[in-house]
Design a protein that fits this description.
It is a single chain. By secondary structure, the protein is of the alpha+beta class. It has a single domain, classed as Alpha-Beta Plaits, CATH 3.30.70. Helices cover about 30% and strands about 25% of the residues. It has two helices and four strands; from the N terminus they run βαββαβ.
Length: about 100
């Protein structure tokens, strides 16, 4: 089992729309893929040890199999995802295969 971390931002002034899309549409679409077993989303806290954070939102997905399998599942389904115009263009995605 591994985890995929996805860091995102909403476009200025569109956080509510972005969060609604992510929670009601995007998470269910990703979790419908057999490789993905769980997901949660978090919002960046105001208090930060290092305040120069680029991203406000984090989605943590759990997947079965390897990182390559998870990416293959996502890339195979990406054309069917209903995307939004409320998400900022810069996104950071990191996959982790297990404990260090």
């Amino acid at each position: 089992m591994g985890k995929m971390l996805v860091f995102t931002n909403a476009l200025e002034g569109r956080d509510d729309e972005f969060n609604r899309w992510y929670d009601e549409i995007h998470l269910p679409e990703v979790l419908a893929l057999p490789a993905f077993t769980a997901a949660e989303r978090l919002r960046l806290a105001e208090a930060q040890m290092f305040p120069e954070q680029r991203f406000r939102y984090l989605a943590i997905y759990e997947y079965q199999g390897s990182a390559a399998d998870a990416m293959d599942a996502l890339m195979g389904a990406s054309g069917s995802f209903r995307m939004t115009d409320t998400m900022a263009a810069e996104v950071q995605v990191s996959l982790f295969d297990g404990p260090a």
